[in-house]
Amino acid sequence: MNRKFLTLTTLLMIAAFLMAACQPAAPAVTEAAPETTEVVQEGPITIGYGAPSLDSFQTNVMMSMTRYAQEKGWQVVTSNANFDAEAQANEVDYWISLGTDGIVVVPIDSKAICASVKRPTMQYPILYD
What we know:
Helix content: 40-55%
Largest sheet: 3 strands, parallel
Distance between the termini: 26 Å
Number of strands: 3
Oligomer: single chain
């Protein structure tokens, strides 16, 4: 259980740090942390995961995420952009067209990925620090 929690927390932190480049700087605001509630969804949850390459670290992250998702009954659509920012943008478009419930991308080019996540068709929350 602790390993699963650590893996999921690590993935969320990676996504948050990587998406930070897409957001303008904002003044710090201190707010109470919102309560978390579990959302019940009909049908399986599908997540798109895009790695910049399949080096040993990225392969480990992808396999851990996929294994954890499968244990939850979720589906993960994975891809490898081979350090091609345009291919990565196309992957995001593809996942949006599939109607995935979430997208996790490790950006190759933080400026290029901003255009993908700011499209009007993007209906996902954007995580940032």
